[in-house]
Amino acid sequence: MNFRILTKSIKFAFRATKRVVAFIIIYAILIVLVAKGLQGVIELPGASQYGELPWLLMAFIVATLYAILISQFRRKDIAILKCVSWNNSDILLLLVGEVVLVALSAFLVVFQISVEILGLIAYFDASTSSPLYWVHDIIALDAAAMFTSLFYVVLLQIPGLIFAQLRAMRIPPMRALREE
Questions:
Q1: Residue 21 placed within a domain
Q2: Is 169 exposed, middle or buried (0-12, 13-18, 19+ CB in 10 A)?
Q3: Domains identified in the chain, total number
Q4: Is residue 122 part of a domain?
Q5: Is 111 a member of any domain?
Q6: 8: domain range?
Q7: Which positions ≥6 away from 96 have C-beta within 8 Å?
Q8: For each of the chain's 180 residues, which pLDDT tens digit applies?
Q9: DSSP label at residue 50
Q10: Is residue 69 part of a domain?
């Protein structure tokens, strides 16, 4: 594995801070929804017969959409990198690095919020009718549910990454030299 390319993907991600921060928030919400849905806390109307499928489908759609957006917004960067002799596996590693960065950052945000809520509940010795418990019921997750939902979100990004890499392979290096 080429760690130089992974660090470059982190630098690329920070160049598009608005998009990355927005998708970190979206992924954090996705991790919470998938975890709560897999636990059976949230029920979708009319979807009880399908079990976990709606939640996994939602994670698949969001993860695939983000991978496609990365390949769309990075077209010029990918064309420049192809001009300087990067091959398609290096480009894929670049895309994987940004997607994994966003997924892990969202996981850490959800983990931190869960720990903070539990700390506030313990510090204030809040009763079950407290607003902190309402927030706890909405956001806080146990560790097993968080890791399971992170696993599903990362696993369901693979088809999106394959599609994004196929799109990136079709970008001609001459696109970098065109004026737009």
A1: yes
A2: middle
A3: 1
A4: no
A5: no
A6: 3-103+142-171
A7: 9, 161
A8: 578 887 888 887 878 788 889 889 998 988 888 888 877 766 555 555 566 788 788 888 888 888 888 878 888 888 888 888 888 888 888 888 888 888 899 999 988 988 888 888 777 776 677 777 777 777 777 788 888 888 888 888 888 888 888 887 888 877 777 765
A9: T
A10: yes
